[in-house]
Design brief:
Blueprint lengths: L9 H10 L14 H12 L2 H21 L5 E3 H6 L1 H11 L6 H12 L8 H27 L5 H7 L10 H14 L3 H16 L1 H9 L4 H12 L4 E5 L4 E3 L2 E3 L4 E5 H4 L35 H18 E6 L21 E6 L3
Antiparallel strand pairs: 1-7, 2-5, 3-4, 6-7
Helix pairs in contact: 1-7, 3-5, 3-14, 5-6, 6-7, 6-9, 7-9, 10-12, 10-14, 12-14
């Protein structure tokens, strides 16, 4: 459940307990032994080998989305490209119909928005109702997979047994499918692709450099992740008392670790506020966290961002903001950095 200054209202607890399952802490926010149990499963899903096997599918989705937009000179980039690409990828991996991804977006937003710590009480109640609706959808899918397993992540979650031979409970399955896989598998990647395009609009020289040398696109991916850090920070509790930068910390103190700030540290990244396609060790940022909580889906996210910009810069080499729209704005959030919309124009490359 998301943190809030007033805790979790009983009304929200009642919504979950009467109609669905109260979400557990996600893999990124839980501690052992639950963290170890869930991460042991998730790590197997996103190995480098499995991401390589999925890359042709990711490339095909990116190309298809752009083909569908080929007759447009003006688009809303988040809605038309940055959101559907990772959502279609995770939908395919989960084994759910692509035709349902519009509804998945509504549900995914309902999972993520309470973590912003800026949602109104009324919106938090609405989000709980939407998540219960989502749980009902996936509960039916779990029941069907129990009868007829498929080659998909839902079937793998059902079949998984931990080191002691225990299967996931239904409450655990709902948390893994809806939070760890669906929401975590698309929201931050959408944010990175959207913010990455905004950076290219702001730095057209970078576009020219990459068009001349497409091999630099993986470096662009790392610079976008560093500069925009879709997960700007995470809450952690102090395991031990200590002192940090002159501040006394007690065991159990709640901290907000700001990855976004660390990724612009001048001592680590010279000229930190701009894209540098020649940067030494471009992947040394903290956009995916570190230690035992490092993002298990990092390899998949990197490939989706790289595939997105490979496809985009293969077709287009000029991008601009539309003057009749307000400046790009971000979802208010203490946690994430998500563009609400990016109204832009683009021009095809001359062949």
């Amino acid at each position: 459940m998301a943190l809030a200054d007033d805790g979790i209202p009983q009304e929200i607890v009642d919504i979950y307990e009467s109609g669905g399952w109260l979400p557990l802490a996600s893999c990124s926010t839980s501690d052992p032994p639950q963290h170890t149990r869930v991460r042991g499963f998730l790590e197997k899903l996103f190995t480098a080998e499995r991401v390589r096997a999925a890359t042709p599918m990711i490339d095909e989705i990116a190309a298809t989305l752009l083909e569908d937009l080929a007759d447009k000179t003006e688009i809303e980039f988040v809605r038309d490209f940055a959101h559907p690409l990772p959502m279609m990828v995770i939908a395919d991996l989960l084994g759910v119909p692509r035709s349902d991804i519009a509804q998945f977006k509504v549900w995914s937003d309902a999972i993520v928005e309470p973590f912003s710590m800026m949602a109104s009480p009324e919106r938090r109640v609405e989000c709980a109702r939407l998540v219960v609706e989502m749980q009902g959808y996936f509960a039916e899918m779990v029941a069907e997979r129990r009868r007829r397993p498929r080659d998909d992540l839902i079937s793998e979650a059902i079949a998984h047994r931990d080191s002691e031979g225990n299967a996931f409970s239904m409450q655990e399955l709902m948390t893994i499918i809806t939070i760890d896989l669906l929401a975590s598998g698309n929201e931050t990647t959408t944010a990175a692709i959207g913010s990455g395009m905004k950076l290219l609009i702001e730095e057209p020289a970078v576009v020219s450099e990459i068009v001349s040398d497409p091999a630099l696109i993986p470096v662009l991916t790392e610079e976008v992740l560093r500069l925009e850090s879709p997960a700007q920070g995470m809450f952690r509790r102090c395991a031990h008392a200590g002192t940090l930068a002159g501040v006394e910390l007690a065991e159990g103190d709640l901290l907000n670790i700001r990855f976004g700030a660390a990724n612009r540290d001048r001592d680590q990244f010279p000229d930190p506020d701009r894209i540098d396609l020649r940067r030494t060790k471009p992947g040394s940022h903290l956009a995916f966290g570190m230690g035992r909580h490092v993002c298990v889906g990092a390899a998949l996210a990197r490939q989706e961002i790289t595939s997105a910009f490979n496809a985009l810069l293969h077709r287009y080499d000029h991008f601009w903001l539309l003057p009749d729209h307000s400046a790009p704005a971000y979802q208010p959030s203490l946690f994430g950095r998500n563009l609400l919309a990016l109204h832009m124009g683009w021009a095809p490359r001359s062949r």
